[in-house]
Specification:
The chain is of the alpha/beta class. 35% of the residues lie in helices and 26% in strands. The strands form 2 sheets. The chain has an 8-stranded mixed β-sheet. Strands 7, 8, 9, 10, 11 and 13 form a 6-stranded mixed β-sheet that branches. Strand 1 and strand 2 form a beta hairpin. The longest helix has 22 residues. It starts with a helix and ends with a helix.
Length: 386
């Protein structure tokens, strides 16, 4: 059977997944600067019977199209490959060789498992029908991020369903967690620059305080919303009144309509400063990370497939869980394409576990094979669906 052959093939390629993951971990690159990473991925597909589109979107995105033995449904699988501006402190023998840059969110593992799964699907292409599109996405970590631009390229316009996963070190290996409906928060990043007149610090302080009234007075208390100013930059002597400064922050929410309310009132409050304090305000507000909405039908079907085929084999549990307040630009794909984004347990074998974006973050490499098999099962079921 196709599934048995695919699973056996993945078993035999576990060392390849680990080697690829370690290569990417050792050579991380920041969002929009992943030139060498993208070139390495593209070379992997050379001399294979696939169509490879490089430099997709607003950066180094790659879309690989694998055709089966005859036309059918089109399923997309996505993994991101950018790293973070963090000085690694893991002490791993394959730790980052690029100072101040680290794969601290598991994107090295995402890319490694998907490359090997893609290669196995290519080798077995005469046994399945339809098309699989492999989306190697750049710049997930930094706005304006890569997902929207890949969608805008039109290369995924024919996709019937899309799937992706994220490794989490606080979940045990062998577990998959899923959320039907809103699963990750949307994020609007914003900056405000009151300057050129009067005391900018007084005006900005008022702005920071008034922003909190958006959540307390403009948002239904049953809706999730958080508005944060995380950076207040007003460099200079303590006895000099500042005429300019920069504020940076973000807003998180679980519903697109809530996001619109936050942005509308953010602009109103910022413009009000100009009249009240006689200052000039420049605003940069972007909404590059919409709430990630897992389509219930596809999510439940994926969970059912994993329960049936995975549990007792490569999985211990498939668990429904509540939404995650983190942001993930996979939500851009799900605005137009049905699908789901799942979390895969990757707890390392160590006493203390460090979460995503920590300088000591690491994953259990056994999770690579688990992810490959889980996504393989979901893919085969989606290709065969009517």
């Amino acid at each position: 059977m196709l599934r048995d052959e695919l699973m056996n093939m993945l078993d035999g390629r576990e060392d390849d997944m680990i080697a690829l993951r370690r290569h990417f971990h050792e050579h991380p690159e920041l969002s929009f600067d992943e030139k060498e990473t993208a070139a390495f991925i593209a070379r992997f597909y050379e001399n294979k019977s696939v169509d490879v589109q490089t430099n997709v979107g607003n950066g180094y995105g790659i879309v690989v199209t694998i055709d089966g033995k005859q036309p059918g449904r089109t399923i997309a699988l996505r993994a991101d490959f950018d790293a973070l501006q963090i000085e690694e402190q893991t002490g791993l023998p394959f730790a980052s060789k690029n100072p101040g840059v680290m794969h601290a969110c598991g994107h090295d593992g995402h890319t490694a498992y998907l490359m090997v799964l893609a290669d196995c699907l290519i080798r077995l292409r005469d046994q399945w029908e339809g098309t699989v599109k492999i989306v190697h996405q750049h710049a997930e970590e930094m706005a304006p991020a890569g997902a929207k631009s890949i969608m805008d390229s039109g290369l995924l316009d024919d996709v019937d369903e899309i799937y992706g996963i994220h490794f989490y070190p606080d979940y045990e290996v062998g577990t998959v967690f899923y959320t039907s409906g809103y699963a990750y928060a949307g994020k609007g990043g914003h900056g405000s620059q009151p300057h050129r007149s009067n005391d900018a610090i007084v005006a900005a302080s008022s702005f920071v305080m008034n922003l909190q009234t958006i959540v307390s007075r403009r948002i239904n208390p049953y809706d999730m919303a958080v508005v944060t100013i995380g950076s207040f930059e007003a460099v200079g002597s303590s006895n000099v009144i500042k005429d300019s400064l920069i504020l940076r922050g973000d807003a998180r929410y679980m519903d697109l309509e809530v996001g619109k309310v936050i942005e509308e009132h953010f602009h109103r409050i910022a413009r009000g400063l100009e009249e009240m304090y006689d200052v000039k305000v420049e605003i940069d507000y972007n909404s590059d990370y919409p709430p990630l909405y897992n389509h219930p039908k596809e999510t439940e079907q994926a969970a059912a497939v994993l329960e049936k085929n995975g549990v007792g084999s490569y999985l211990e549990q498939v668990i429904a869980t509540s939404a995650n307040t983190g942001a993930e630009d996979f939500g851009q794909y799900l605005l137009k394409i049905p699908g789901a984004f799942l979390n895969v347990g990757a707890r390392p074998n160590q006493a203390e576990v460090f979460n995503n974006h920590h300088p000591k973050f690491d994953i259990n490499e056994k999770a690579l094979l688990v992810a490959a098999k889980a996504v393989a099962d979901i893919t085969l079921a989606a290709l065969a669906a009517e």
